């Protein structure tokens, strides 16, 4: 995608600068466009933990490059296994992270230490290229769903789409998952408008999704997290599209906290609720999302404080809650498959069910 007409991916390697890895510091968006240069494993791990880089597909890709950086320091068996385990443990809910590390190890373990660094960069590059291609395909399949609604709306109708959190190109290597169909619909000349949930407590919708859509020229409106049900009740939402950090083989969906409530409201108001994901986000080893998906519990300060830009341009963090008030901060929730209209993958759309996923991915089922 582009920023100021300059094409970017969300992660890239600078071969002229010691094969360093570059990412956008997402904690500085939308106020500043800072690019981080990563040269060692601990910098990558810190960037993932602190959410300088986030989004399930993207953290998998960045972690893969993190292992490549680690191997530059020590490519021996023991060090490689240690570094892989450290990177895999930085975020527990997003399955893409574990998938990427396991794929890297499958490529690297049979090789002698002297060949591992080059192979690691090569494999991480393939992971990035495949993610971009998968997300572009997701966009094409999801576009058809928007086109169907637009056809019913007529020439003057606007398709209103609600999304939660950020599942755009900044959360993947390129294109995004939930936002890819929206970008393609906009570029195809369809009239689309996006309701952007603020997505407390880290406000990924208000800061990242709104920034992305605005940069691309897509009409959008930021709303409080609790406004979605009201909008659906009054016929102001034609469909919901969200991303996900993990989908079970039965179709349960783990996504940013608050997604479950949107799914309940959509179900009650007969609004289609679609989840967009590359197949790398499917955890074929898990059946029951509520019982088996670990939910990351993040620090309470994310709830009790908020960061923004003051009138004079300073970036400040302020306290929201009274001194002494505790805060709980589960980062994700699980939406049962029964509330999901369907899944949009790189191979097409399917029911959120074991049979639906098996139909698209028989080699996995």
From TrEMBL:
Site positions for Transition state stabilizer: 165
EC number: 5.3.1.23
Biological or metabolic pathway of the protein: Amino-acid biosynthesis; L-methionine biosynthesis via salvage pathway; L-methionine from S-methyl-5-thio-alpha-D-ribose 1-phosphate: step 1/6
Recorded GO MF terms: S-methyl-5-thioribose-1-phosphate isomerase activity
InterPro entries referenced in this protein's UniProt entry, alphabetically: IF-2B-related, IF-M1Pi, IF_2B-like_C, Initiation_fac_2B_a/b/d, M1Pi_N, NagB/RpiA_transferase-like
Statement: the UniProt record of this protein carries the keyword Transport: no
Binding site for substrate: 54-56, 91, 204, 255-256
Annotated keywords: Amino-acid biosynthesis, Isomerase, Methionine biosynthesis
Purpose of the protein: Catalyzes the interconversion of methylthioribose-1-phosphate (MTR-1-P) into methylthioribulose-1-phosphate (MTRu-1-P).
Family: Belongs to the EIF-2B alpha/beta/delta subunits family. MtnA subfamily.
Protein's recorded name: Methylthioribose-1-phosphate isomerase
